[in-house]
Amino acid sequence: MELPGPSQAALDEVVEHRRHFHRHPEVSWDETATSSFIGDRLKDLGLRIDECPTPTGAVAFLDTGRPGRTVLLRADIDALPIHEESGVEFASAVIKRAGNVIAAQAFMLERLHSVVDGMEYEGIECHTTVGDIRTDGQWNVVPRKVLVKGSLRTFTPEMREEGLQRLRDLLLETDSEFEIHSQLSLVHGTIPLWNDPNVTRTVLEVGRELVGDRAQHLGRPLTVSDDMAEFLTRIPGCYFMLGCRPADAETPPAHHSPTFRIDEDAFATGVKVLAGSAARLAAEA
User: Fold this and answer.
1) Residue ranges per structural domain of the chain
2) Fewer CB within 10 Å: N-end or C-end of the chain?
3) CA–CA separation, 82 and 63 (whole Å)
């Protein structure tokens, strides 16, 4: 079947909207203006707007009137609390949070790598990070409490349990060393994400038709985290990566960092692959 070809006007609108959302960010569960903007635009395009099951977000349905399967396309809309240093003219206004580090917390952070030491899957190491530290102190007041937020990323349930046990042991060691009391609160983020082989095959076929050999199978696990994984436990799908390194960057700017920026020309490839894959999957018996 012939793949749909988005017009240049549509691709220009993708860039325009992306810059709007980037300039006016809203963090997770606060995306009220973002949700309204998306819902209004989808309604203008003629899609049916359905009730969203979460406080923020937008759900729309496109009925083509043709036989075939229903295909789900999903996107994140939340921003991160980062002070941006990318230098782009449409920089966002989300400000980073500040915090202090005391001796016990420093002790724990210095040893945090031990939680995942030696844990790997198909040659790829598990990962642990800390991205948010807060205290109840001031510049001249010793804090009584420290809140540390981070993530532990593993590939299997067994690895997750081992990593958590190691983290509990580290906290116990910290408590004993500094005569403090720590409490571990688990907020289950996402499960490992597994692509469906058949859907992935279709997406790769579409990608190769559009961009040739640049559409490749990565072939190794990544320690990324995305709640799309929850969808894929119920609906066969494919989560693919889009190369968008700026031409003047020797290495891709890190995601979730103040200097993150992209080559917006890559959106054309992304839109074409998404639209083409959705059309082909919908047409399959």
Assistant:
1) 8-95+191-283, 103-178
2) C
3) 39
Q: What does pTM read for this prediction?
A: 0.67
Lookup result for tokens 């989560």: 239
**DSSP code for 112:** G
Distance, in Å, from the CA atom of 124 to the CA atom of 11, rounded to the nearest integer, reads: 36
Question: What per-residue confidence (pLDDT) applies to 285?
Answer: 59
- Residue 144 confidence class, pLDDT cut points 50, 70, 90: confident
Tens-place pLDDT, residues 188-206: 777 888 899 999 999 999 9
CB 270 within 8 A of CB 54: no
Could you read off the pLDDT of 32-87 as tens digits, one per residue? 999 999 999 999 999 999 999 999 999 999 998 988 999 999 999 998 777 788 88
CA geometry: angle 153, 155, 205, nearest 5 deg: 110
Cβ pair 239, 228 in contact under 8 A: yes
- Give me the residues paired with residue 138 across strands: 141
Query: What confidence score (pLDDT) does residue 94 get?
Result: 54
Confidence of residue 214 (pLDDT cuts 50, 70, 90): confident
Instruction: Tell me the residue ranges of DSSP E strands in the chain.
Output: 48-50, 59-61, 120-121, 124-125, 127-135, 146-153
- The residue length of the chain stands at 285
Kind and range of the H or E element at 234? none
Across 36-48, b (16+ Cβ under 10 Å) vs e yields ebbbeebeeeebe
CATH node for 8-95+191-283? 3.40.630.10
